[in-house]
Please model this.
Amino acid sequence: MLQGRRILLIVSGGIAAYKALDLVRRLRERGASVRCVLTEGGAQFVTPLSLAALSEDKVYTELFSLTDESEMGHIRLSREADLLVVAPASADILAKMAAGLAGDIAATALLATDKPVMIVPAMNVRMWEHAATRANIATLEKRGVLRVGPVSGDMACGEYGEGRMAEVPDIVAAILKFFATPMPDRPLAGRRALVTSGPTREPIDPVRFIANHSSGKQGHAIAEALSRLGAETILVSGPVTLPDPPGLSAVHVESARDMLRACEQALPVDVAVCAAAVADWRVKDAKDQKIKKKNGKSPSLTLVENPDILKTLSTAAGNRRPSLVVGFAAETENIVKNATEKRRRKGCDWLLANDVSPASGTFGGDSNRLHLIREDGVEDWPKMSKADAATRLAQQVADHFRDLPFRPAGKGA
Ligand code: PMT
Model:
């Protein structure tokens, strides 16, 4: 449920900091990656070592650390997350946030971020009820900061009242809800997307293969754009040199048959976009050993057809999940005409046709000129960057789903 989500967990001072250790585990077992910032106060209660061991990542504790800054500046730290969670959030850090102070790494990350922030307050009941804390909370909530708790109960200090940190399952539930709730800038929250990208490699022998010129730029940009709009996105990619886009889960495959398997494992999803340049054929009897030259005689290769991933996803019987299937057509002539026929043949809902003749520079290039073909007609898009084309497609996918009811998309649903 949190596959591919990146959470920056800021642990401030308070006895409840021990719960942050369990929170890291529970978020990670749901697929999130968790990076921790530990304040000086927080370090009085839990150690950087325990957070590092549980998060399997570096823990950030200092603002003016030469090594931390050279590896990952504090600005990047605050932006390379989908959500910042402050748990426990002490009265002190809430006051710093409200006032916009930036005297340590935690406060700086919170001031520098452009990502949503969730606070999980924990403090003594009198501190929680103090007019200063009330005003700080009101200020933060007016700015859109999300809050979980605090709850009432016995306190470590011996008093009773509101101020206890919310329990870990309730924090996890709030985080899950956050990622599943569509907001104006995340209209695809709660939807699942599958994107194929890049070429496939079909082995001839252990050292040779059949492939094509796809770089993965278009498919990766689409996966990133869908994820940015809030979709839980699985990118199934053939061999490319691009890094995995942030905030999604990537599955790396080689052949068309591997790609089909990975796609089937990702189901059910709401939308599938097949941008990969899948090899139509593979060598029938790929050899286990390198084929040797024999007296100038060239080996003959018999090709057999690969499974058609797009067609398989589009024509699945019964309750098809993806409910929206988007294919691509790589054409070198009669682009729209051929692609219109291809859409019918493959059974997908939408199809983006592009010219892949060498002169177009589409393969491997940074721009694309697409034609979106649907049952009701063709939309010609001007030439634009692959990133812009991806954003435009993701927005149209979001528009398509805007008024459609949510159906459970989890495994086995
Ligand atoms: O990766 P880039 O360098 O950025 O280039 C982008 C691109 C040109 C690869 C991309 O925009 C594109 O056109 N992708 C589809 C390439 C392709 O294989 O087209 P096709 O017309 O051969 O196939 C039609 C559709 O069927 C495609 O959605 C393809 O993913 C799918 N297919 C094809 C064969 C197969 N065995 N299984 C499939 O799923």
Summary: The domain at 192-402 is CATH 3.40.50.10300 (Rossmann fold). The pocket of PMT is lined by residues 196, 214-219, 256, 274-278, 280, 306, 308-310, 327-330, 342, 346, 354, 356, 362-364, 386 (CB under 6 Å).
